[in-house]
Structures are given as C-alpha cells and as structure tokens.
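User: We ran a pulldown and think these components assemble together. Before we commit to crystallization trials, I'd like a predicted model of the whole complex to look at. Sequences follow.
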Amino acid sequence: MKEMTYKDAINLAMSEEMRKDKNVIFMGEDIGVYGGAFGVSVGMFEEFGEERVKDTPISEAVIVGAAAGAAATGLRPICEMMFMDFITIAMDNLVNQAAKMRYMFGGKAKVPMTLRLPSGSGTGAAAQHTQSLEAWLCHVPGLKVVTASSPAEAKGLLKAAIRDDNPVCFVEHKLLYKMKGEVPVDDEYVLPLGQSYVRKEGTDVTIVTYGTILHRVLEVVEEVEKEGISVEVVDPRTLYPMETQTIVDSVKKTGRAIVVHEAAKTGGLGGEIAAMISESEAFDYLDAPVLRVCGLDTPIPYNRNLEAAVVPSVEAIKEAIYKVMNRK
Amino acid sequence: MALTKEILMEMYLRMNHARHFEEKVAYFFSRGMVHGTTHLSVGQEASGVASAMALDDGDLASLTHRGHSQAIGFGLDINRMMAELLGKETGYCKGKGGSMHIADIENGNLGANGIVGGGYCISTGAALTQQYNKTGKLVLCFSGDGSTNEGTFHEAVNLASIWKLPVIFFIENNLYGMSTHIEKSMNIKDIADRAKSYGIPGIIVDGNDAIEVYETVAKAAEGVRAGKGPVLIESKTYRWQGHSKSDAQAYRTKDEVEEWKEKDPIARLRKFMIDQGMATAEEMDEVEKQAKENMEKAVEFARESPEPPVESVTEDVYA
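Assistant: Here's a predicted model for the assembly, 647 residues in total across the polymer chains.
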C-alpha cells in the first residue's frame, strides 16, 4: 500500500497495464509531454514514448472512432476526453460504432477500449466543462459505464476496464483527482466490474450513490448517526450494466431507500435505480417511497453560489433522510 | 501486381455476382422478404469490386451502406451475404445486421456502415493497428461523395495524414447524396481536391473502368505500404437505381440514367477482355452463366437456412 492521489492512482493503473501488455496504447489531447489537462498522465510519455502515448489533434470523433477501429483489430486503446462534455462530438463513434459493433456483426467483433471521462461540477468552469452525462451512456447497450470514488477503487476498476473486452466509459469526477488514499501497489490489484459494494453498513436507510457526491453523503451519514439514524451506503461502481442484487438486499434490510447523484434528475440514474427497487422483491419491504436527491434540471452555472446550488447539498440529503424516516 | 487473365476473369465473375446479387435483393425487397431499407450498387461494380481486389491477402476494408459490390469484391461469400439479407442464422451477422452491417472482422472486413461516413474513423484506427504492429497491411476505407461533408471525414483524413497511417480513402462519387446533386453540396468539382488540405495525394479514377480502378489502387497501395501515409482516391461512377428502395428519383432525368447505362462497367470489361484477345466471347459467356448459377445457389442456401433462434436476441451484446 502507498498513499497517493486519485489521479496518480489512475496514472499507475494505466502505466502498469501498459508495462504488462504491449497492445495497450493511450491517445488523447495533450496527454503527452503536457501530461494531460489535469496532469493525470505526467511521466507516461517519457516512459512509453510517442508510439504508445499518442497526442492527437483536437478531434474527439476520430479519437473515439480510431480507438474503436484499433480495438476491433487487436489493440487495447485507452483514450482521454479532455472533459466528459466533449463526448458529444464523438457520440456517433461511441454509440453507433463502438457499442454496437459486436452485436450487429453477430458476435464476431471485440472492442476492448477504455474511454476516460473527467466529469462533474465544482471547478467553476461553467456549463460546457462540468456535466455529469453518465445516464446518457447507461442508456446504450454495449457500453459499460464505471465510476470510482476513491484512489484505490480508481486503480482497481480502471485496470479491470482496460482488461475488459468491451468499450468501457470510465467516469472520473474532477474534484476527486487530488483526493489522497492508500492504494495497493500490487500489479494484480484489480476490482471486478459489474459488482455493487456496500460502502458503509447501516440498518435504517439505504443510500445508493457514487462518485464525488458519495463523500458528501458519508459526511451527512456521520451527522445523522449521532441522532440515532443508521444509514447503509451502497456504491454501484459499475453504473451499467449495474449489479442490482446488492442494492435490493440492502433495501430489504433497511426498508427505506434514497438515490443521490450530482447529475440532473430527469432521465437520470436515480429514476432507474428507484424503478428497479420498486420492481424488485424489495418493494414489499419498503416503509416509504424511494426518494431521489439529484442535480437540478439546469446546465451548470458559472457563479460559485449558483453552481453549488445545482448539486445536492448536505441539507437536501439530510432532509431526504428525515423524510423517509418519518414516513413510518 | 500485373493484371493476369486469371485475376480479370475472377474480377468479371465477382462483378457479375454483384449485379445479380442486387437484382435478387430488389426482387426479395418487392416481396417483403428483405425489409427495412437497402441501397443497391448496380452500376458501381467496377468501383467496388476492382478496388477491393487490388488488395493483398490480409489487407482490411470498411464498407459503406451501399456495400454489396464492395463486400463481393473483398471476397465475401455470396451465400452468407444473401442469408444475412434474409435475416438467417447462417448470415455473416447471424441475421442481426442485414444489408447495412455485413462484416467479417476476423478476416479483415471491418463491416458495412449505416452511418454516412461511419467508416472513416474505424478505418483510421484499424490502420493504426497495422502501423503499430508493423504488419505491412493497409486498410481500404470505402465511402461515398456525401460523406466527405461529414466532420469525421476531415478528422480522420487529417489524423491519418499526420500519423502517416496505411489507409486508402476510396471515395465512390456517384454524383448524388440521396437526392442532392454534388453541385449543391460542395463548391468544388472534384472531391480529390480535398486531399490537398491534408497534404496527401488526391487521385481521380474512372470508376466504371475496372482496369483503371484496379491499377490505381494497386499503385497507391505501394506507397501506403512503404509508410508514405494515406492516399485519397475519387472514383467517378453512378448508381443506376435510386438511393434506396423508396426513392422515386424525381431529382434526375431518365436520359441521364440511360447515358450512364451506356457506360456499363461490366459490358466494358467484357469488351476489353475480348478486344485484347485475353478471352473469347464464349469464355466470357461461361463466366456469366456461372455467376447466374452461383447466385441461384446463394438464394437457395439463404432460403433454406434456419431463422436465428429467438433466444439469440440477447446474445453478443457484450464480449
């Protein structure tokens, strides 16, 4: 174990996989000598050279499309979108090409590519550099969508994403890049995809959440536990295809559920998870309707106070907990 | 890369296969046995077949939505192609792809593409694999005139150029993007001129002349294989039929279509072979007869093939 930042854990995951497998290459805008817009890939160009750490032009569509073509022919490309918002420009190549290639070609193609997507608000960068678009991606069969909320998880899950034979969208909340934590330095520290995790055990309420907002939830949980409310926190980590039994089992135990995420509420994952709980055997155990605490249905504003008001606050999360507790 | 009689006879067979394939597809479509939509390549057989045949074993190709001639040129099996159009389990995509998604990735065919310009980035990536692994192979990226107005054309050609990737962008210019004449969609006469913007060669060929198409692609391939970077070839051709099966063709005259039918690439290759003394009329007749028989067998194979089991609907979403 070694203490390191979330972004260094990502760097370590990529570097270890590149040392292990020469088919792994890395492409994106300014990822070479510059080290990436957020400094995630510092040092990789020096170690692996321009043949494997490839600076591209500002051409998001061909970054993603070329990764798909390279993946279908034997390489295992990782690519970085400078900001998650920019996948809009690459959507045909991600959604119509990479995600569908295997199915529409009768199971003959494998598309082992990883798309790293710096997401989320809190940086003051306004509407086009701060979105959380994971729900879009979760609506596309053929893609896998993964997110990590700690440095160790970032390393373990990213390594699994790189080793996966499907296109994996790896969502990295930008506010986590500087977060520090103990990370296993073992080469084979890989966390399986498609597994949800109980991040913290509890008995009264289940909160399903992920990414940076998970840490805000944990703060709130600590506060309400002083008041005698025990909260279980479940992090799906693989947002799609999501392993749901862990969530269902948790809700059966607690009888109450809240979904919290930063992304806009309407059409978001919160609705999907709430519906999944309602359709499951956990429905009979519910003592209150499933609640959602999500981002507002607005673009992310520039002003700091307004930006903070868009995403779920400590108060809003706490209020939701009180609300489901009082329904009995 | 000399054009031997053997290659030319095979080319003539495949061009005839391509023509008959489309005739069968049109028939099946009219009977509701081929559904959705389909884009026929009648008139473009020299362009699709001769270019793909100029590749070496192990080279790769990506095809367009009007890809039947291209696929047959690349050497795909007409039985499995026809089965795919009828949605059968024996088809290239087990009945899940249809006309616009025929692919044989294991053998280098990166697939037809229902998205206009959808093959540019895929081909560029496949070319990156060839360069990275030093395979000496190249990718032939088929596309149409209309697709050169898509953003991905510019992104992919630019990237392939700066990275010197082994790819030939082969643009079949059949004058129309659906109903819109090329004059209304670009302010230049020749698409080949667009190559200049990316610092690569732009070559024009008569797409109805199989010999010229073959020799041009074969020659371009030499430089591409030697690491000189991509080449753009504009193949001037014409589709005799509408854009798709629902096209009434109000945008062009019958005279124009008739004029192009006079330039029939199949009749032209036949005449060339006979005029050059490379084959007799009887030999060419024999190939034509063979092509017809092969197509009947393909139809029979497809018709007799089983439907995919309904349980297969959820298979192969993930590897």
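The CA atoms of residues 47 and 207 of chain B lie 5 Å apart. That may be worth checking against your pulldown data before setting up trials.

User: Thanks, that helps.
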